[in-house]
Amino acid sequence: xxxxxxxxxxxxxxxxxxxxxxxxxxxxxxxxxxxxxxxxxxxxxxxxxxxxxxxxxxxxxxxxxxxxxxxxxxxxxxxxxxxxxxxxxxxxxxxxxxxxxxxxxxxxxxxxxxxxxxxxxxxxxxxxxxxxxxxxxxxxxxxxxxxxxxxxxxxxxxxxxxxxxxxxxxxxxxxxxxxxxxxxxxxxxxxxxxxxxxxxxxxxxxxxxxxxxxxxxxxxxxxxxxxxxxxxxxxxxxxxxxxxxxxxxxxxxxxxxxxxxxxxxxxxxxxxxxxxxxxxxxxxxxxxxxxxxxxxxxxxxxxxxxxxxxxxxxxxxxxxxxxxxxxxxxxxxxxxxxxxxxxxxxxxxxxxxxxxxxxxxxxxxxxxxxxxxxxxxxxxxxxxxxxxxxxxxxxxxxxxxxxxxxxxxxx
Length: 411
Fold this sequence. Notes:
By secondary structure, this protein is mainly beta.
């Protein structure tokens, strides 16, 4: 038993002595340990620069002519002036009191780099090694500072929607981030305390939900709306609320304004209100009635008579009306000289804008009925010339009678 205990003690002392030798001399070859100690900034944004620091330790024997090299690949590249391979020279050991060696590189991150941890490789060699030693698994963190989901384009079909009609609203959103965005909610504010919109969603609610959208991707989102039948023709600015989260569960919320145009083609009519001209070759006042029979209001209305061989304007040839509301009328008066047979068409140019400032210019013919002298007299629209002369003669006779009678009385 005593012999066995002595043997065990001898073996333990031999092991301790062996461990002391290994700790002192670190083996017979270099034992290089490399670690990525720092990246600045952390994380780095796509399209930006980053500085990375590697710490090189040697727990073995001295390494002669030590060379360290970084191997860059997408999404990283060396900045101009940076050298991938760096000569360290003699890499001392801790046994000689040598501190760690720090090697730094400045890298450019690609603009299209995806958010996340990207691997970068390094390698080293010295006179003590026959070939390069490759090391992998170093991670550089890339993260977009602010994940942007933007409204890229807004379209309505038709472009201008008449009251009482349907419109398809297509909103195209784009993910400008380099990672997916998720839990996306888009909602139209169609009814609020400040401004009630004349739109109602059809087939779904005023909110659309998407589970995710890929990095740099575009996606169209559709709403179908019904425009109120009594909606005023104008441009409506509808608030659009957008909420979403990025890959790191950061929440975002913002409000945009989109435009929906409500309007209809104006229906402006013109008729003859009254006239003093009934026979060919006569001159008189002609009054036109202008009626807004359409839904949109009309503004900047200008009326002009176009002269031709049958129609001559005496005085001003145009009249400015200005605003003409829906279901309302106004008049424009001109002094005209007319000649022709039966019916003469008077061309009138109408120039105006609708409520959405779209300009319209059209020429419409207004018919004026002409009569012969006999027809005009029989209709009572023209006085008989002989009757007028008889009336004048009677007046003269009466005046003469009064004159001679007064003279006779004096005698």
